Amino acid sequence: MRQSVKILLLLAAGAAGLFKKVAAAPSDREINSKDEQKHSKLTLWQAAKVLILAGVAVGVIGFLVLISGLVPIKASSGHWRVTRWFLTFAMHRSVGTYSTPIEAPPLSDPVLVQKGASAYENNCRVCHGSPKLPHPPVAQHMLPRPPYLPHVVSEWDTEELFHIVKHGLKFTGMPAWPSQQRDDEVWAVVAFLLEFPKLDQNSYRGLVGTDAAAEFGEAFDQVLRHCESCHGPQGMGRGFGAAPRLAGQKVDYLYSSLSAYARQQRYSGIMQPVAARLNEEQMQRLAQHYANLPRNLPTETPDAAGAVERGQKIANEGIREQRIPACNSCHRQSGPRNPIYPELSGQYANYIVLQLKLFQREQRGGTSYAHLMRHVAPNLSNDQMQDVANYYESLAPQVASAAR
What contacts 42, CB < 8 A, 6 or more positions away? Predict the structure, then answer.
């Protein structure tokens, strides 16, 4: 404390000396007559000196206030009205500028809305609320207060919402999306936000599923309930394919995938935060649990204009001229070539297509064998991806081994 006082006194004395010296400086011009000397006005250079002196004085005073610790940073004090206006205006202008080159994809797909709803419930609800509790008490004491989004979504364009969700906002507590490689997840959240103002408590709960996200404790049943909010109580993904079917999947693949998410070697702003909170035992128990669940497919996948047949040919034979190997050389049903290769039979077609596109864009990590797909996916056309995905979705899943 004494050292700070000494510094303040020295800086004040220096500023006073500088002011005295500049004020006493002679004019740059020679004054030829006594009358002219009496009635002369400040020259341009003298005026500049005064401005420079004033700027230095303001800077010194500001620095003194800064190091004194008198500037309040407590959230309970709020902002001055002019400060709040300035920060809000600057935020809107910045978001508007940086979102200009962004082009929004179609966002009416129910898969996107459901996926975004689960992500919102698990990651965003604690600050931005839900129809049941629009204004969480703790969040309302943040500065600035996180708004209840149905009341403010209309103030932003779709592309601006994407920019905010992906990159977050400085000085607000709004974090960036945990995985910057997964724009598809960010767009899913935006798709949900556009629907959010239309939802009441029942329709909201129908979209997000179970109440699992409310608490995430150490007990395994709490962890499992958290997973069920996206993957459903029977591990079948709650329909649509917003999340993959985990029931009957290989236990080694499930465990390795959770480990990859936790190490941030497989990218997902939804799964990375969840997996990072799991310990070794919880990962193993989750893998065993889902591997032991039966994968009972609700309906047969229709063959859309021969898509299943074309996909079967690619899966069995590959496409030599495109340097595409047969998919079943790794993902065959007759028996696992490698226990870490995933079981694709009965998986949602749109989920398989998404993974292939992530591999194609080099935005999909995973187990130690994930790199193999980066040499295959770029050679597939979008139609070929869809055909292969439809074929695997149509297959009855094999019983996965639960032994690890």
Answer: 50
Contact yes or no for 248/400 (Cβ under 8 A): yes
CB 340 within 8 A of CB 368: yes
Q: What tens digit of pLDDT does each residue of 77-129 get? A: 888 899 899 999 999 999 999 999 999 999 989 989 999 999 999 889 999 99
Residue ranges and CATH numbers for the domains of the chain are 103-208 (1.10.760.10), 216-292 (1.10.760.10), 304-394 (1.10.760.10)
Q: Residue 264: left if φ>0, alpha if ψ -120 to 50, beta else—which one?
A: left
- At 198-250, the pLDDT tens digits run 999 999 988 887 654 444 455 788 888 888 888 988 899 887 788 999 999 99
- Can you spell out the DSSP letters for 193-256? HHHGGG--HHHHHHHH-SSGGG---SSHHHHHHHHHHHH-TTSSTTSTTSS---TT--HHHHHH
Number of H helices, E strands in the chain: 17, 0
